[in-house]
Amino acid sequence: MAFINYLPPDEIPAKDRVHDSDHILRIHGVHSRVMKLHYDLYKELMYAKGPLSRIQREMIAVVVSAVNECHY
Prior knowledge:
Blueprint: H1 32-47, H2 54-67
């Protein structure tokens, strides 16, 4: 867990809020515009048409997270 105080969701401007039920992007709430941009990038990389299937993209994400020793 990060040692940065998270903003409560109601303190993030409505235009910058994103669906983040697992709170992975919540750390960006201190710079809410960045949080929205990060989320938009994630959606583009994981869901847009491309040469890799959704399952292949998720497998790459799991490997990268494991290498980076992410706990989530």
